[in-house]
Write a structure and sequence with these properties.
By secondary structure, the chain is an alpha/beta fold. Helices cover about 35% and strands about 25% of the residues. The strands form 2 sheets. Strands 3-2-1-4-5 form a 5-stranded mixed beta sheet, sandwiched between helices. Helix 1 packs across helix 2 and helix 3 crosses helix 7.
Length: about 260
């Protein structure tokens, strides 16, 4: 089996694929903790496997997209010791599945490239992929399948945390849309500004990217907050939470190991 790991700043997604197949057999989403030792990380993974009656010996390859450099040596050591497999890291500047046409490809997030690869395979081109994570990243993919570039905005979660943290009288709220844009009390006012405000941001950036791409690309959302925003705008056609893992599987399938 293939273990695919998408290590993000806030969350880490892990997926299990059967050998030579693109069907995602199992997926976990856990909090990223870059202070874990290799032993802790390995035991943690082993415990996750045990919940699905899997064993470390079932894994014969590991592929990783990471935007947390401090965690990379830990994941490498844990995979080698607990799974007997040296992980292969997807590097935007050296992978050959997708042309990255930015000025400095090495600065592009590996998770975004993995998601772009997965989205292109699943939904064709041209395409806009919106990744709702620690940041909200808008990825433009050209008609010929190249990674054109990205717009990056603060994510929903950190924006809410910053607002609540700086205003002592504001309460913590659920990320649910209110019935009206005009709030009549604090909670609905916050919900309106946050949810409808991010919807407006999404729609504006989609319009601008579509104009620059020159055609009308499909729009797909991914990431932990995707459903929160996507259900309030018709511009997002669908939500696919597994794009980065699918992209990593395709990267592995391409023969990089």
């Amino acid at each position: 089996m293939l273990l695919a790991i998408d290590a993000g700043n806030t969350e880490t997604k892990l997926g299990i694929f059967a050998d030579g197949k693109r069907d995602l057999r199992q997926m976990w989403r856990v909090t990223t903790e870059d202070r874990r030792t290799a032993d802790e990380f390995g035991v943690f993974l082993t415990q996750l496997f045990d919940t699905q009656h899997l064993t470390p010996s079932d894994v014969n390859a590991v592929v990783i997209a990471s935007v947390v450099p401090n965690l990379d040596p830990t994941m490498t050591e844990a995979c080698e010791r607990f799974f007997g497999a040296a992980p292969v890291f997807l590097k935007p500047e050296s992978q050959t599945l997708m042309s990255v046409q930015t000025e400095r490809p090495a600065e592009v997030g590996a998770d975004l490239v993995a998601s772009a690869i997965g989205a292109r395979e699943q939904y064709g081109t041209p395409l806009i992929v919106i990744a709702f994570g620690t940041a909200t990243a808008f990825v433009a993919i050209s008609a010929d399948g190249a990674y054109l570039g990205t717009a990056i905005a603060p994510g929903v979660g950190i924006s809410v945390d910053a607002l609540i943290g700086r205003a002592a009288k504001l309460p913590q709220i659920a990320l649910d849309a209110p019935a009206r844009a005009i709030g009549r009390e604090t909670v609905s006012s916050l919900q309106s500004g946050i949810i409808f405000g991010f919807v407006g941001q999404v729609e504006a950036l989609i319009d601008r990217m579509q104009a620059e791409i020159g055609t009308k690309p499909r729009v797909v959302a991914t990431g932990g907050r995707a459903d929160v925003i996507a259900k309030h705008t018709k511009k997002i056609e669908l939500v696919d939470p597994h794009l980065s893992l699918v992209g990593l599987q395709l990267f592995h399938e391409s023969g990089v190991v």
